[in-house]
Amino acid sequence: MIASLPMYDWPEVRSHQDSYWQAIRAALGHGPADLTRGFDDYMAHWQRPDLLLSQTCGMPYRTRLHDKVTLVGTPDFGLTGCPPGHYCSVLVVNAQDDRAQLSDFVDDIFAYNEGGSQSGWAAPATHAAGLGLRFTRLLPTGSHRASFRAVAEGRAAMAAIDAATWELARRHDPATARLRVLDRTAPTPGLPYITTAGRDPAPLAAAIAAAIAGLEAETRAALMLRGLVQIPQDAYLAVPTPPEPTV
What order of strands is seen across the sheet that includes strand 51-55? Predict the structure, then answer.
């Protein structure tokens, strides 16, 4: 069996991620000794028959994975303005840019991590569409960190960052000092934990909840973990999916 926690696995918190996994493994009573890292094909990884636990993004879960994997639960990061287990996108711009409204930016360069990302693309595109707007100049970057750095460095005017990632960034990346938050999207269900299709999720969910409750305070704070929430699959599937970006 393999396990991974790839969505918030920043180098600055990697040792805490390892401690978190060891706590889950101990509560579960079995599992691989170490987390799997370094894979490139996320879709293939998430559909492996030997997958014990991983974390995916809401958009691939609803568009490609929901009938191929088993939903385990969703971590709650206690994000401001979001219900438990939910998150949003933080729309960031350069701190030196005094434009005040989203409409001032939609014809400028919008940086996004990838077209399959809920927080990097789907949420901001849906948010803009609700205002009768559309991003027209796009810069794909490959990661949230690369997106907000592009804005800080003046290579893009705006980026949409997962709110949990933004909290990590504010703690660990000096580039955030050159940014300001322009707006936030509506909350949607957060990044879910999954296991292989057909596996009973209840023991995993119980182990994760126990692990979070028993973590050392430093690790819990570093990973922003508050608990595990059960969000129904239908809530994920109800989130709008905009057209893919065209670069």
Answer: 2-3, 51-55, 193-196, 69-76, 227-229
Give the DSSP letter of residue 197. T
- What are the tens digits of pLDDT across the range 114-127? 999 999 999 999 99
The pLDDT tens digits of the residues spanning 132-144 come to 999 999 999 999 9
What is the C-alpha R_g of the chain?
A: 18
Tell me the whole-structure pTM to 2 decimals: 0.96
What topology does CATH give the domain 2-78+188-237? D-Maltodextrin-Binding Protein; domain 2 (3.40.190)
DSSP-assigned letter for residue 120: I
- Residue 54's alpha-carbon distances to 65, 157, 160, 201, in angstroms, are 12, 33, 24, 12
Give the three-state DSSP class for 168: helix
Calculate what percentage of the chain has a pLDDT beyond 70: 100
Q: Residue 147, SS3?
A: helix
Q: Same CATH topology for 2-78+188-237 and 89-184?
A: yes
- Domain ranges in the chain are 2-78+188-237, 89-184
Looking at residue 57, its pLDDT comes to: 97
Enumerate residues 6+ apart whose C-beta is below 8 A from 178. Answer: 94, 95, 96, 152
Residue 44, H or E segment: helix 42-46
Question: Is the domain defined by 89-184 classed in CATH 3.90.850.10?
Answer: no
CA angle, 226 as apex, 148 and 118 as ends, to 5°? Answer: 40
Amino acid, res. 239: V
